[in-house]
Amino acid sequence: MKRIGVLCSGGDAPGMNPNVRAVVRAGIEAGLEVWGIERGYSGLIKGALAPLGSHDVSGLINRGGTILRTARCAEFMHAEGRAQAAATLRARGIDGLVVCGGDGSFTGAQLIYREHGIPIAGTPGTIDDDLCGTDHTIGFHTAVTTAVEACDKIRDTADDHDRIFVVEVMGRRCGAIALETALAAGAEVVLLPERPGLGPRECAQRLRHAREQGKTSMLVIVAEGAGKGEAVTKVIADALPDAEVRCSVLGYMLRGGVPTVNDRILATVTGVDAVHALLERGAGCCHHIGVIANRVVRTPLSEVVGRPKIIEADLVALVDVTAGLRPWQSG
Question: Does the annotation mark 128 as catalytic?
Fold first, then answer.
């Protein structure tokens, strides 16, 4: 293996830049040429790629986003698109590919490996923390930190005006961001897609009981997959007509910002090992590079793709325990 490519795919995540930096530096250290591919699989199909040197990735360790840009590519979902991407790689003499992305990105990576024999090393770049084979994903810690900082500010206003605030965070299928944000921000209730038994109506019942106990301001964290913030706010406002209920949607701000120490280290460790995995496994490399219990773990992509990560039930219970509410009415 003499030349490898690196791309970022899907939604952007803080830490992608440090990951690209690590791949380039590790590749050069191993005597490889490293080519950067712009805008994910779309750039691969269109031939938007160029060699990267050590100087090209200087100053990336503390930069959010990705200098390579990222995108979702409908063309790559079809065999013809993947064939064009493989042809691009072969025409440029690229022997292996590092893909930083999430489940959808790895689905495509696995297919181009199976159909065209392109060696793949995947690094977990997604704020959702929804990938198996790693304790956390690149960008998750930064996203939670951003959300908690916002909630701390919202809590000040909630206290000052005796309001209930509903804060919606990203997470269509996985409630990890909402769960850890709720725990760190001291939220009274968290709504998760993995916990369908606790929805907006049950949330309103808990808040009513809390007000009866004397609580005047409260914070509700909602993962977008468990209900839209505005809709949840309306249910609560209808159930508690004497309360002031407001909604704040954090949205895409969670994808940006300077990556935290945790994300910089995770991005660096996985980026370096992705290069090593390609060199060591060669044509048989189709692996996800993660970190479990502070150890680098290589898992076949077939054991990662399409397998939802289970959130920790103990953390869910901790939100309830630390909410400061005496047992609520169930009826």
Answer: yes
SS (H, E, C) 178-237: HHHHHHHHCCCEEECCCCCCCCHHHHHHHHHHHHHCCCCCEEEEEEHHHCCHHHHHHHHH
Residues 30, 279: Cα–Cα separation, whole Å: 9
Mapped onto helix, strand or coil, the DSSP state of residue 79 is: helix
**Residue labelled with tokens 């935290």:** 260
Active-site residue (options: 12, 128, 129, 263)? 128
All structural domains of the chain: 3-139+259-303 (3.40.50.450), 143-255 (3.40.50.460)
Instruction: Give me the half-sphere count of Cα atoms (radius 13 Å) on the Cβ side of residue 180.
Output: 20
Report the distance separating Cα 172 and Cα 126, nearest Å: 13
DSSP one-letter code for 59: T
Summarised one tens digit per residue, pLDDT across range 180-190 is 999 999 999 99
- For the segment 225-280, what is each residue's pLDDT rounded down to a tens digit? 999 999 999 999 999 999 999 999 999 999 999 999 999 999 999 999 999 999 99
DSSP state of 72: -
Token pair recorded at residue 9: 């795919």
- The model's pTM: 0.95
Of 125, 121, 67, which is closest to residue 267 (Cα–Cα)? 125
Residue 226 CA, chain-centre distance (Å), reads 17
156 exposure class (CB count in 10 Å sphere: 0-12, 13-18, 19+): exposed
Are residues 40 and 9 in contact, defined by beta-carbon separation less than 8 angstroms? yes
CA dihedral 232, 146, 179, 198 (to 10 degrees): 0
Question: Helix (H, G, I), strand (E, B), or coil: what is residue 173?
Answer: coil
CB 203 within 8 A of CB 238: no
